[in-house]
Amino acid sequence: MLAVGMHTIHGIRFLPVGRIDGVQLGLDARFLSWRGLSVLALLTLATLAGQLGHESGSAVWLGLAQAGLIVPAIALTSLGHELGHVLASRLAGLTVRAVVLTPQGGVTIRARSNEPAVNFLTALAGPLANALLGTISVWLALTCELEGPLLTFMVELTALNLLTAAANLLPVGAMDGQRMLTAWQTPERAAALEAAA
Questions:
Q1: Are residues 179 and 99 in contact, defined by beta-carbon separation less than 8 angstroms?
Q2: CB contact at 8 A, 141 and 155
Q3: C-alpha to C-alpha distances, 67 to 93, 102, 108, nearest whole angstrom
């Protein structure tokens, strides 16, 4: 694994790749392992396999390029979700240190709040950002009369954003729905649920 330039904040090891308004952006170290790269390759191949059932008559390289669009669609979906958390955190006056894209989504590393309403709204902001991005993506796909790889990309982006919004509202595990539910519970119960997630 690549170790040069790695940073660790709150136990999350990542490779910094840029900054947006003072917030560090990074890729989780697990993305840079053989396992992480294999998952990305499998996603691309699965998308390509889904296209094989459709008679398109296009070149193989074009099919591979279209299949490869799933990777940036996943990255944009995760980034949009985390930037929703960043915006809500900033509006609440919380310091945000980093956004790290991980194989299972992303993490926003920010200051904690003792206010239930702030914790609830910052958790809700991620799914809301995905719902908004999914709506914008479907609107663009329908109104701009897109074709070919660009249409494929917009359909993938729409589906990923809307599914991510819905899934993150579930009150289970490390999902935002669980954080929203936890925000309104007693501090003792909230700490126990967060530790279990």
A1: no
A2: yes
A3: 41, 20, 28
Is the model's pLDDT at 61 over the cut of 70? no
Count of domains in the chain?
Answer: 1
**What are residue 20's DSSP bridge partners?**
23
Beta bridge partners of 9: 12
Per-residue DSSP letters for 145-172? Answer: T--HHHHHHHHHHHHHHHHHHHHHTS-S
Q: Over the range 98-114, which residues count as b (16 or more CB within 10 Å of their CB) and which as e?
A: bbbbbbebbbbbbeebe
Residue 2 counted as domain residue: no
The two three-digit tokens of residue 78, written as one number = 């995760």
pLDDT in tens, 9-57: 888 889 899 998 899 999 888 877 777 777 777 776 766 665 555 555 6
Question: Which residues touch 139 (CB under 8 Å, ≥6 apart)?
Answer: none
Domain that holds residue 154: 7-196
Domain annotation covers residue 1: no
Domain annotation covers residue 173: yes
Residue with tokens 């396999």: 49
Question: Beta 7-9 vs 12-20: how paired, if at all?
Answer: antiparallel
Please say whether the beta carbons of 132 and 76 come within 8 A: no
Give dist(CA 34, CA 39) in Å, integer. 9
What does DSSP assign to residue 55? -
CA–CA separation, 83 and 1 (whole Å)? 27
